[in-house]
From TrEMBL:
One of its GO terms (molecular function) is ATP binding. Keywords: ATP-binding, Nucleotide-binding. Signal peptide: none annotated. Residues 614-702 form the GHMP kinase N-terminal domain. The lineage of its organism: Eukaryota, Viridiplantae, Streptophyta, Embryophyta, Tracheophyta. SUPFAM superfamilies: GHMP Kinase, C-terminal domain, Ribosomal protein S5 domain 2-like, UDP-Glycosyltransferase/glycogen phosphorylase. It comes from Erythroxylum novogranatense. The keyword Zinc does not apply. It holds the Pfam family GHMP_kinases_N. InterPro entries: Galk_glycosyltransferase, GalKase_N, GHMP_kinase_C_sf, GHMP_kinase_L-arabinokinase, GHMP_kinase_N_dom, Ribosomal_Su5_D2-typ_SF, Ribsml_uS5_D2-typ_fold_subgr. This is L-arabinokinase. One of its GO terms (biological process) is carbohydrate metabolic process.
Length: 985
């Protein structure tokens, strides 16, 4: 359409201005809001040059004017989607590096020249970082218009991808700091790089046609319920079926390809259809959250059924706004893909959206931009952008912090938390001398069985349970804005029945690490941080189901059947869905429990709910391994303070706490050792992570302030080793996320098993073909035969390895070459990729020598106290660390932490004072995560640990999490059975 100039707006223009408007390549939402701002600038008589990668029709369908110039250039890629609902964090950073970082100098030169050539009066960015820097270099003022910035988004991605991308985030933040001020849109994220902010209303595209006109053009009666399906293009592989919609409904599909065929109740919209008109003519929308969809849904009071997007860090802020105005209903991805839409649509049309705020943000922003270009100064210069740069990267790390352990949260982020109701999983509180907090929940509950053992985190968890009923009955405004996971938890339990509570800690890998799957002796310490699980079983007829689960049961037309419902606290900070539910019958395949392969596929359907495999997988393992059948419904609340991705076994603590709770609620008597072995099956076969058993064993069998000594063949607990009173262990987190499901850990494990098969083959050939040395006696021949059937690498001594096998092992080998020669590496939980090359010698050597180091470490712990004892213990940690690196499992962050320990250990001051820190090593699966440090148990050591923490922050921008202290394992804790007290009449 053609814009008709308004005399009122034109008169406001003091002179003809030229705006250069840069648009990020992340989705159409940015382009659509740019259209609205640009429209008002053009109405005022100005030229707008849009720099974009979006299709022309997005702009030309709204603006038909010679003052609009479109320059097709893409200067930043935004976030790369693995699929319609999942962001690929690593791919996003890599693509940004290729498109914006490597060619940066040429981009800057080109943009400076272009800005000069068009004689731009003002550069506007939504929200391209380099545009702000190019403007500054060209001597032109710049302004950003956005609800998020890429330093905020990418900072969290660095947690997954590693520190090598940190400089990218810093560069983005620095570019933004050249911007004069930020025009901030509602639903905003924290944006620390901008020194000044002006808030404006929602930017919303205006309507061209009425609801009646649109429906008439589409041939849809007014009494028909109309759904608009808006996922930014219908993803391939999604099959729409007629039964997905309730009777009397039609669905308009946005962005479908011309070749797709739809059922009769689904209508394909043209690609150039003007979406706002269609949205306003619909009864509700089903799609994914983005600024454009949320703002226009609010503006047109359109109920929005949304599906969570994984790693889309902007989403929680937009979702909070959507739900605040009673306009949003979340659909779980499984129900989206299986067509279980009815309960969500019925819930959506019952909503009463109540947004009454402004929707003229485009006009307001255009006025501010015009005034700025003319020369008005909106910036206060109160804060410099440079002062806030470090916060940009720190924010991403702090998003991954553990519940209840906030550290150095910047003021601007704390404000955002309060404003947007973000919080950590557990409530924080303090006890006074009278124990008032203890009494606050004991007034609500009595402990029928067990003892909380004075653990403050358990007290906190019980307090959170007591608060759930308060939240349920509260009607004041504060309680209405509880986090979504707390809302779900409110209806989880029937308080007339008993609830069972268990606790399982994470673990610090002192010695043993990745040698566990090769049969090594390991020494592990349970840490203070733990996972709590509350569980309740109910007869299906008494189970309080969530609405969509109730609708699913009703649709089957059967009597109530057992359902599993799980709430996970901390989901807002970990990019996962807060709830999970399933019919327990889904675990059955005919008369038998489903296979582990089928279960793995089942939980992989929805990445945002894959976490549920760690919890629900315990039920399937009990069904398959012990023959248990579950006739009752099960409700589970999971709250973990064990930080994820830091190499301290967050997954094991969840598994052990969950299985222990389910066993307690069902009266199953399972030893802590067997709990651990069963939980390893959960991780190996249901989750699909090839871990050893030491994590689960420590979480289940460990004791506070003791090292669990275990030979992993498969899991023989030798006992508990007292930590001498003069020795102390710390864990220092590197800030680099670690996962045993990652490719590095798995490839090293495969290499170790390859090495074992080559050693066995070598021993077999030597003993079978008569090439045994003449001077070898019968014992030597028998030893070769034993090694030919080697079950665990760690049963081979270092001297035998060096004497006979080291030279027989290749440094590396192609997977296909190994399979051709040896057929199989005989590891039940990993699969060889025949196109990949694996390190063999280092991977096989590590567990053989590590087993020896752990034995020596254990013996030294019981030796007489001396500086030599500590020096030797520390040296063993250092040797282990460098052996990890030889396997390819090191990282820049963990190497830096170990070097910092060494610098303090060997400093002149430390040497003169007889030293306090003696050694350090990477832990767990490696490739990041946490470093274990050994030192004297004294105040000076703690001061030096804090010094390392600060020096690491100064070098990297990340303040490490410090693990100190220990707590009992799940077996020692047992379980609590709690019951709500009845009020006296």
């Amino acid at each position: 359409m053609t814009i008709e100039e308004s005399n009122g707006v034109s008169a406001a223009s003091r002179r003809h201005l030229v705006f250069a408007y840069y648009v990020t390549g992340h989705g159409f939402g940015h382009a659509t809001r740019v259209v609205e701002v640009a429209r008002h600038l053009i109405l005022a008589g100005h030229d707008v040059h849009v720099v974009t990668g979006a299709p022309d029709f997005v702009f030309t369908s709204v603006i038909d004017s010679p003052r609009l110039f479109i320059r097709k250039v893409l200067l930043d890629c935004g976030a790369v989607q693995a699929d319609a609902l999942t962001v690929d964090r690593l791919a996003s950073l890599e693509k940004y590096s290729e498109t914006a970082v490597k060619p940066r100098e040429s981009i800057l030169a080109t943009e400076i020249k272009w800005l000069t050539s068009i004689r731009a009066d003002l550069v506007v960015s939504d929200v391209v970082p380099v545009a702000c820097r190019a403007a500054a270099d060209a001597g032109i003022r710049s302004v950003c218009v956005t609800n998020f910035s890429w330093d905020f988004i990418y900072a969290e991605y660095v947690m997954a991808a590693g520190h090598r991308h940190r400089s990218t985030v810093w560069q983005i933040a620095e570019d933004y700091s050249h911007c004069e001020f930020l025009i901030r849109l509602p639903g905003y994220c924290p944006m620390p790089a901008f020194r000044d902010v002006i808030d404006v209303p929602l930017v919303v595209r205006r309507l061209h046609k009425s609801r009646e006109e649109v429906r008439k053009e589409l041939g849809i009666r007014n009494d028909v319920k109309l759904l608009i399906l808006n996922f930014g293009g219908q993803p391939s592989g999604w099959k729409l079926k007629e039964e997905y919609l309730p009777p009397g409904w039609l669905c308009l599909v946005c962005g479908a390809s011309n070749t797709e065929e739809f059922p009769p109740n689904f209508i394909k919209l043209q690609k150039n259809a003007y979406t706002p008109d269609v949205m306003a003519a619909s009864d509700c929308m089903l799609g994914k959250i983005g600024y454009g969809t949320v703002s226009e849904a609010l503006a047109y009071k359109l109920p929005f059924v949304f599906v969570r997007r994984d790693y889309f860090n902007e989403e929680p802020f937009l979702r909070n706004m959507l739900e605040h105005y009673q306009s949003g209903v979340e659909m779980i991805r499984r129900d989206l893909l299986t067509g279980h839409w009815k309960p969500y649509l019925e819930r959506a049309v019952s909503l009463k959206p109540c947004y009454e705020g402004g929707i003229n943000g485009g006009e307001v922003a255009a006025h501010i931009l015009q005034e700025t270009a003319i020369g008005k100064n909106y910036a206060s210069d109160k804060f410099s952008g440079a002062r806030r740069l470090r916060d940009a990267i720190i924010l991403g790390y702090q998003l991954q912090r553990a519940p209840g352990r906030d550290i150095s949260i910047p003021d601007w982020y704390a404000s955002a938390e309060n404003e947007l109701n973000k919080s950590t999983g557990l409530p924080t509180f303090q006890t006074n001398e009278n124990g008032s907090v203890l009494s606050s929940w004991t007034e609500d509950f009595e402990i029928v069985h067990g003892d909380f053992q004075g653990l403050s985190d358990t007290m906190s968890f019980l307090k959170s349970l007591a608060d759930l009923e308060t939240i349920h009955h509260s009607e004041n405004g504060t309680e209405k804005h509880q986090m979504r996971e707390h809302k779900a938890a409110v209806t989880l339990f029937n308080w007339e029945e008993d609830v069972y509570v268990t606790r399982a800690p994470g673990r610090l890998d002192v010695m043993g690490g990745i040698a566990d799957y090769s049969g090594s002796l390991v020494l592990q310490m349970p840490i203070r941080e733990a996972c709590h699980v509350a569980v309740q079983r109910n007869h299906p007829s008494k189970h309080r189901l969530w609405k969509h689960a109730q609708a699913r049961q009703n649709a089957k037309g059967q009597a109530p059947t057992p359902v599993l419902q799980i709430v996970s606290y901390g989901s807002e900070l970990s990019n996962r869905g807060p709830t999970f539910d399933m019919d327990l019958s889904d675990f059955m395949d005919g008369e038998q429990p489903m296979s582990y392969d089928k279960a793995k596929k089942y939980f992989s359907q929805d990445p945002s709910q894959k976490w549920a495999a760690y919890v629900a997988g315990t039920i399937l393992v009990l069904m398959r391994e012990l023959g248990i059948r579950f006739e009752d419904s099960i409700s589970l609340l999971v709250s973990s303070a064990v930080p994820e991705g830091k190499g301290v076994s967050s997954s094991a603590s969840v598994e052990v706490a969950s299985m222990s709770a389910i066993a307690a609620a069902h009266g199953l008597s399972i030893s802590p050792r067997d709990i651990a072995l069963l939980c390893q099956k959960v991780e190996n076969h249901v989750v699909g992570a090839p871990c050893g058993v030491m994590d689960q064993m420590t979480s289940a069998c460990g004791e506070a302030n003791k090292l669990l000594a275990m030979v992993c063949q498969p899991a023989e607990v030798l006992g508990l080793v007292e930590i001498p009173s003069h020795i102390r262990f710390w864990g220092i987190d590197s800030g680099i996320r670690h996962s045993v499901g990652g490719a590095d850990y798995g490839s090293v494990r495969i290499g170790a098993f390859m090495g074992r098969e080559i050693i066995k083959s070598t021993a077999s050939i030597v003993s079978a073909n008569g090439s045994v040395p003449d001077d070898l006696d019968n014992d030597g021949v028998e030893l070769l035969k034993t090694e030919a059937s080697l079950d665990y690498l760690c049963n081979l001594s270092p001297h035998r390895f060096e004497a006979l096998y080291c030279n027989a092992l290749p440094d590396s080998m192609l997977g296909g070459t190994f399979v051709d020669k040896y057929a199989d590496h005989k590891d039940p939980v990993t699969v060889i990729d025949q196109t990949r090359t694996y390190g063999v010698k280092a991977a096989a050597k590590h567990p053989i020598y590590e087993n020896f180091r752990v034995k020596a470490f254990k013996a030294l712990l019981t030796s007489s106290t001396s500086d030599e004892q500590l020096t030797a213990l520390g040296e063993l940690l250092y040797q282990c660390h460098y052996s990890y690196s030889a396997c390819g499992l090191g990282s820049d962050g963990t190497d830096r932490l170990v070097r910092l320990v060494q610098e303090i250990q060997h400093s002149k001051l430390s040497t003169a004072e007889d030293g306090t820190l003696y050694g350090a090593k990477i832990t767990g699966g490696g490739s990041g995560g946490t470093v274990c440090v050994i030192g004297k148990n004294c105040l000076r050591s703690s001061q030096q640990i804090l010094e390392i923490q600060q020096r690491y922050k100064n070098a990297t921008g990340y303040l490490p999490f410090i693990f100190e202290g220990s707590s009992p394992g799940a077996g020692k804790f047992g379980h609590l059975r709690i019951r709500r007290r009845t009020s006296p009449n």
